[in-house]
Amino acid sequence: MTELKLPELGEGIENGIVINIMVKVGDTITEEQSLLEVETDKVVVEVPSDASGVITEILVETGDEISQGTPIIRLEDVLTAEANETVNEVISAKANATSELKETKVKMEVSKKPSPIKQTVSEIKLPSLGEGIEKGTIIAIHVTVGETIVSEQTLLEVETDKVVVEVPADFGGEITDILVTRGDEIGEGTPIAKILGSTSDVAADEILTEVPKVIAPVNSDIEASTRPNRIKSSDLATKKTRNGKYRASPLAKKIAREIGIDLATIPLTSQSNRISVKDVKNYAKALNQNRVSGMATKSMGTLPDFRKWGDIRSESMSGIMQATGKNMTTSWSTIPHAWLQEKVDITYLEHKRQAHKGVFKAKGASLTITGILVKVVAKALKDFPIFNASIDLHNAEIVYKDYINIGVAVDTDRGLLVPVLKNADQKSISDISFELGSLAEKVKSKKIAAEELDGATFTISNLGGIGTSAIFPLVSFPQVAILGVAGSQTEAVHIDEQFQPRLIMPITIGFDHRIINGADAARFLKHVKTLLEDWFMWTL
Q1: Residue 184 falls inside a structural domain
Q2: For residue 440, how many other CB atoms are within 10 A of its CB?
Q3: Residue 15 vs residues 61, 67, 286, 372: alpha-carbon distances, Å
């Protein structure tokens, strides 16, 4: 049996939502065959199979939020599956042929045997006492030999240098031996008791628990007689269960107590009913994110009931739209923005572009204004490196990047995506044109890879195709500048004492005013204007 797990979705991507399951139980699949589609906050990723075989179980559902390492599929080797199927057919035939005989035999055995329960003696060992805690001292033993206990019942108390920890039983049964005494110093894995129990008892006890008991932290310098009274679980709340059943490790209980999490409300990520430390941390993280989201929603005000004015309809925001909203909120709240505008005469540039675009088209590429802008901006960033930097406020430093990666904002039906041309300053116009075309195709077909959306040092947002007359874009954190491009229009320009029709393109530089002042921004914008109006300047 092989278990397939979710691989890494991309740098900086922690989780995603299953939006499509492309296989079903019983399917025979091959290595690299697509299993499902996962939507992250940046891109939709197809998850391929690491092995071939027959699908015996699908462990996720559409809408599940999963992360790297989450089990998604169980496979059985093809030959094993075929062999099992043959064996099952033989067994089924044999069972049908002898059903009456077996039924009689079972009745006879039941009448002879008083109980089918098998008794076993199991050893309980000390679990982890907490992160960074290696050992502790037993200060109380709450059970005796011969006593019958249930799962999660407290066996003893161990005092560490930080807290007093109650150690619960992993399962129920009769205590046959206590292997430690009060005052012993023990560590994780030390045997503490032996319990006689049946498999049925253990199974029944596995699902019982109660609200974790809160124990006051202790100071090693304070005598036991002066310690605060312990708070009993009955003083906090009545017994609660997750769907009636759950268990939790001592470390999970400890962390939950420290951060104020009610274990009864935690959803599990595994097939068992045992709450792990990971479950507690993930739940706390989700609560914190919801709290922040709720604060943001509250700060925007409560929406009125729009229905009183007419019919309405609501649609869920895509993961990409939600991520864009969060990123833009971060950028707006973090970066003190400023903008400068300039008008560029691209009459000559457009004439040359039209003259040469046929050559590019014959080679399978498109010579566009955006491609030319990428090349021009890459050169300008080498001449003005402060626009290719980031601010490190924690260390009071400016981080200059020796590489130039330019992001190009793309409007899609799923929201804003920004594919990145890596090392744009080292590429020709032809290279940039081919790469832009390839990235555009990947965006349209939803095949863009996560790494192709990461690492931008500067962004270009070109709305010229829509025809807007001005644009004031937001800088994308942690970048410090962005170039906005509006629609070109023919204007009358006074040249040589007469007005001439010229194609004018408005451009805007948005910048982080903490490290870029207005004069620097003006010089950068003028430099971009010069490069666009005079191609000879590219060679300097």
Answers
A1: yes
A2: 17
A3: 15, 4, 12, 36
Please report whether residue 302 resides in a domain. no
- Residues marked active site are found at 513
The DSSP secondary-structure symbol of 418 reads -
Q: What is the CATH number of the domain that holds 203?
A: 2.40.50.100
Residue 89 shares a structural domain with residue 41: no
3-class DSSP state of 65? strand
pLDDT in tens, 232-241: 333 333 333 4
198-250 pLDDT per residue, tens: 544 433 333 333 333 334 443 333 333 333 333 333 333 333 344 445 667 66
Q: Can you give the pTM of this predicted structure?
A: 0.50
Give residue 313's identity as a one-letter amino acid code.
R
* Res 397 pLDDT > 70: yes
Dihedral angle at the C-alpha atoms of 278, 283, 285, 289, nearest 10 degrees?
A: 160
- C-alpha 359/C-alpha 37 separation (Å) is 38
Q: In angstroms, rounded to a whole number, what is the distance separating the alpha carbons of residues 515 and 312?
A: 46
Task: Say whether 429 sits in a helix, a strand or coil.
Answer: helix
d(CA 124, CA 152): 12
Which tokens belong to 17? 């939502």
CA distance 491 to 499: 9
- Single-letter code of the amino acid located at 378: A
Q: Looking at beta carbons, which pairs linking 225-230 to residues 24 or more positions away fall under 8 Å? A: 230/164
The answer to whether 535 and 497 have CB atoms below 8 angstroms apart is: no
Query: Do both 456 and 373 map to the same domain?
Result: yes
Long-range contacts of 226-232 (CB under 8 A, 24+ apart): 230/164
Identify whether the C-beta of residue 226 lies closer than 8 Å to the C-beta of residue 248: no
pLDDT, residue 173, reads 87
Angle at CA 379, nearest 5°, toward 376 and 383? Answer: 135
Strand 458-462 and strand 481-485: the pairing is: parallel
List phi, psi (to 5°) of 357: -70, -25
* Closest alpha carbon to 145 in 137, 155, 135, 153: 155
